[in-house]
Write a structure and sequence with these properties.
The complex is a heterodimer of chains A (about 450) and B (about 400). With about 450 residues, chain A is α/β, with parallel strands linked by helices. In chain A, about 40% of the residues lie in helices and about 20% in strands. Chain A has 2 domains: about 210 residues, Rossmann fold; about 130 residues, Response regulator (Rossmann fold, 3-Layer(aba) Sandwich), CATH 3.40.50. Chain A has 13 helices and 18 strands. In chain A, the strands form 4 sheets. In chain A, strands 8-7-9-12-13-17-18 form a 7-stranded mixed β-sheet, with helices on both faces. A 5-stranded parallel β-sheet of chain A has the order 3-2-4-5-6, sandwiched between helices. In chain A, strand 4, helix 4 and strand 5 form a beta-alpha-beta unit. Chain B has about 400 residues and is mostly helical. Chain B contains 17 helices and 6 strands. Chain B has a two-stranded antiparallel ribbon with strand order 1-6. In chain B, strand 2 and strand 3 form a beta hairpin. Chain B is globular and about 75 Å long. The two termini of chain B are about 40 Å apart. Classes of the chains: A alpha/beta (about 450), B mainly alpha (about 400). Chains A and B meet through strand 1, strand 3, helix 3 and helix 4 of A and helix 3, helix 6 and strand 4 of B. Strand 1 of chain A pairs antiparallel with strand 4 of chain B, so a sheet runs across the interface.
């Protein structure tokens, strides 16, 4: 291999290759001259809808996607316009965003942080998405939010209920419309005190992961503040499907209320087990035994069937609300898909509209301009009454619904009835509340 | 070259050329065209190709050579990721110490698990490794939440110590991983007419490491040590009767492949500084088994091909949605268009698992040697030489008796 022949032809060839190599940098350009990641240059703008299409929350994901498709249709001026007509801000004209037609790409989060980040990254790097939204679990929301902060795009969280999303893991580029564990606790506690009295003994079963912890903490502290006593709090594995071994000790503990900090399939199974064990027919300490489910959704109520009757919980939104915004949304969703939307669909639809509106008001897709437009933004007509996007932690503050499983459902969608609409003041907390402490928003990142 | 025989040198050179030119090869369609959907030349996916390539190469050293089917290899990948992220949190955002620590920690972890699991072989070994991996997953997911971040995953924060580095960048954000100031996520685009090719620092960094890993694997395959491992695969009992203790060899192979997995995990964290517990879930362990078998177990290049194939399916096929299908078939008459879309729909988007499963079945049934066998068959169809292929190690073992 040490034999070197320098020929005229070899020299020419090498020279040509080297020359071409030196020319290359003149063709190269750093991504994004416009000062921020994925600045839309053509007549369209691409949004990324990152929802669980497989895994335990696939039902919610499918509903979220329907809502996004509806939102895109309305933004581009199609359909009946939905909430655009009831939204208090009138910046959106139905001609896309800033005159650019809205296009979208979809991805599957699989309800796994890694997969969700991979899919969000491919939307940002390959498809040029300028905003990512969606998701149906807090782990995914937190992971994707951090990614969007690094990449310099806006993240509009979908269904995520853990305090951490706008607490210790908050980011400047991320926004959450959905309510959180603290709000659930604060809204539920007075209703529970009214219905069950203030001298109850509670037993918690908690899904053993992040959301479970924050929900348990929130419900515990708000119920204890009213005089309840927490007898025990037991963690259950997320993959558990049979909860009988966890239910049996509840009766021996002397507790008279069971709080199920479970979501999705977990809640369906644990509630079914608890009812099968006859907990609700028992009398303990001279009181009727009761069960509480802090976070409710219609899809869960459907799964649990008749077992949810009379059980209290909280929810972000429900299709039976009678304000103009909710009615307009339910009407256009129902016309397009033939059934009422879930709360996941509602929050995603609203988030898409809020982002578009913020861009329109800011006059730019630049994430920093959008952040500025959303921070401290007050709006109405989106189904939750007057709402504030708080600047300190990018969390929406609005009324919270306390619901109860309906005794006599009239259809397969009519499973929950609204017991009380807890006013926003009652669920507002200081940005440095202990349950939310430890994080920093940082500064907005426009990327390249 | 590099103390390799001619055939291996050619293979290494081929892999080198393929990885270096990957941004061109993976982006064959002009940006903005209908077919751009199938372009895979964006940084995240290219990084995934080579990182999972490393993972699969390492797995193949254990499975392909000794025949021990570990069903818990993702645990080492996860441990590697966690160590790397902790290094980013505590020490600095330089990727070298992070990757070094992830290899070391994964190595130590695999010594412990290997020492226990290798007391059994066959299905019992697989179940033991699976049990350990699921145990690690469960621990990372809940009990060890202070160390692993639980469900959310371990992330960087603005108030991390980062002793040798800044806690926050000049703009007030979390700094990004880099190599002496060269950011891993930095990219430049080359625009040639309608084509756009992206060159990413992180990709080339990972690709160079993969080439080194690949070279090391070739040397192991061709070494006396590799021969011992093959002997263990073909008949361990006979080996024992000749007075050789097989366990140190299997343990060494197990630890080496665990370190490869740790390296892959560390690189994953270096490209994207987050470590999630799902990385250790049993499906992730199963995935690397699929990659190796799909590509061709016991062959050098097979696992890399398998890794690329599966990651391509996962990232490209899963992103095709119904409206894209309608765009493709808009030229068909209305009823027929809906029919064709309805026929294809189950296989795209969330149905990519189904497509992958069918292709996997097809490969296992018709090409038992994996994609490599497919390549060989095509090569033989067009090739001139016929004898050379014979001495390539095939996935099958011949009975000793």
């Amino acid at each position: 291999m040490s034999k070197t022949d320098v020929t005229r032809r070899g020299l020419l060839r090498t020279g040509a290759v080297a020359g071409a190599g030196l020319m290359v940098p003149t063709y190269l350009r750093a991504g994004g001259h416009e000062g921020f990641t994925n600045a839309p240059t053509g007549s369209t703008v691409t949004l990324g809808f990152n929802v669980p299409q497989s895994g335990p929350y696939a039902d919610e994901g499918a509903d979220e996607l329907r809502a996004y498709e509806l939102a895109v249709e309305h933004l581009n001026g199609g359909g009946d316009g939905g909430m655009l007509s009831t939204f208090s801000s009138k910046a959106l004209q139905g001609n896309g965003i800033l005159g650019k037609k809205v296009e979208y790409v979809t991805g599957d989060t699989q309800t796994k942080s890694d997969a969700a980040r991979a899919s969000a990254k491919s939307m940002i790097e390959k498809d040029g998405a300028v905003m990512i939204t969606g998701g149906s679990s807090s782990g995914v929301a937190v992971a994707v939010q951090a990614l969007c902060q690094e990449a310099g795009v806006i993240f509009m969280a979908g269904l995520t209920h853990s305090n951490d999303t706008t607490g210790k893991d908050k980011r400047a580029n991320g926004f959450r419309h959905f309510f959180n564990s603290y709000m659930s606790g604060a809204a539920l506690a007075p209703v529970l005190a009214n219905a069950y009295g203030t001298d109850r003994k509670a037993y918690h079963l908690t899904a053993d992961y992040n959301w479970g912890y924050t929900t348990e903490e929130a419900v515990k502290s708000s119920t204890e503040a009213m005089g309840w006593e927490t007898v025990n709090a037991v963690k259950t594995p997320l993959t558990q499907t049979d909860f009988s071994s966890y239910i049996a000790p509840v009766l021996q503990s002397g507790a008279d209320v069971l709080v199920l900090n479970h979501y999705g399939g977990n809640m369906v199974n644990s509630l079914t087990n608890a009812v099968q064990f006859g907990l609700r027919d028992k009398m303990v300490n001279g009181k009727q035994f009761e069960i509480v489910v802090p976070l409710y959704s219609r899809l869960m109520a459907k799964g649990a069937g008749a077992n949810v009757k009379g059980i209290f919980g909280s929810t972000n939104w429900h299709w039976s609300l009678q304000d103009e915004g909710s009615k307009a949304f339910v009407r256009s969703f129902g016309t397009k898909y033939g059934f009422p939307p879930s709360q996941a669909a509602h929050t995603c639809y609203v988030q898409a509209l809020l982002y578009a509106d913020a861009v329109e008001r800011a006059g730019s897709f630049n994430p920093c301009a959008v952040v500025e437009a959303l921070e401290g933004f007050e709006f109405d007509g989106m189904g939750n009454g007057p709402t504030l996007y708080r600047a300190e932690d990018h969390q929406c503050f609005k009324d919270v619904l306390v619901v109860k499983g309906k005794e006599n459902p009239t259809s397969e969608f009519d499973l929950l009835e609204i017991v009380e609409v807890t006013p926003v003041d009652q669920v507002t907390y200081a940005p440095d509340h202990p349950q939310f402490a430890g994080g920093a928003l940082g500064t907005c990142n426009p990327g390249a | 070259m590099f103390a390799l025989d001619k055939k291996d040198a050619r293979l290494l050179l081929m892999v080198a050329v393929l990885t270096m030119l990957a941004p061109f090869i993976l982006n064959p369609f002009p940006a903005g065209s209908e077919m751009a959907q199938f372009n895979a030349g964006y940084p995240d996916l290219m990084q995934r190709f080579v990182i999972f390539g490393i993972f699969a190469i390492g797995f193949n050293i254990l499975f392909g050579l000794t025949g021990y089917l570990s069903f818990g290899h993702a645990a080492f990948l996860g441990v590697g990721s966690y160590s790397a992220v902790w290094m980013f949190k505590l020490l600095s955002m330089n990727v070298l110490p992070a990757i070094a620590l992830s290899v070391v920690v994964a190595g130590l972890f695999s010594v412990v698990i290997g020492f226990i699991s290798l007391r059994r072989s066959g299905i019992y070994f697989s179940i033991l490794t699976l049990a350990f991996a699921q145990m690690s997953f469960a621990l990372a997911y809940s009990v060890l939440t202070p160390i692993t971040g639980g469900e959310t995953g371990l992330q960087l924060a603005l108030d991390d110590p980062r002793i040798l580095d800044v806690a926050a960048s000049a703009t007030g954000n979390i700094p990004v991983p880099g190599l002496f100031g060269l950011e891993m996520r930095a990219s430049t685009n080359l625009e040639l007419g309608p084509w756009v090719f992206t060159f990413n620092v992180g990709y080339y960094f990972s690709a160079l490491i993969m080439l080194a890993a690949f070279y090391l694997a070739i040397r192991i395959f061709r070494s006396p040590f590799g021969m011992m491992l093959r002997a263990i695969k073909s008949n361990q009992q006979r080996l024992n009767y000749t007075g050789l203790n097989a366990r140190p060899y299997t343990l060494a192979a197990f630890v080496i492949s665990g370190m490869y997995a740790g390296l892959a995990g560390g690189l994953m964290a270096a490209m994207d500084p987050l470590a999630g517990a799902e990385r250790m879930f049993w499906t992730a362990s199963g995935e690397v088994v699929l990659m190796t078998i799909l590509g061709g177990a016991g062959t050098l290049i097979g696992p890399v091909l398998g890794a690329g194939f599966i990651k391509y399916m996962e990232n490209i096929i899963s992103k095709i949605n119904e409206s894209i299908l309608h765009q493709w078939f808009y030229w068909l008459p209305d009823g027929l268009e809906d029919f064709v879309v309805a026929m294809i729909y189950p296989f795209i988007g969330k149905g990519w698992h189904l497509t992958l499963g069918l292709l996997f079945m097809a490969v296992v049934i018709f090409l038992p040697g994996g994609l490599v066998e497919g390549g060989q068959r095509i090569g033989r169809m067009f090739g001139r030489k016929k004898s050379e292929e014979k001495d390539k190690p095939s996935g099958k073992t011949t009975p000793a008796e």
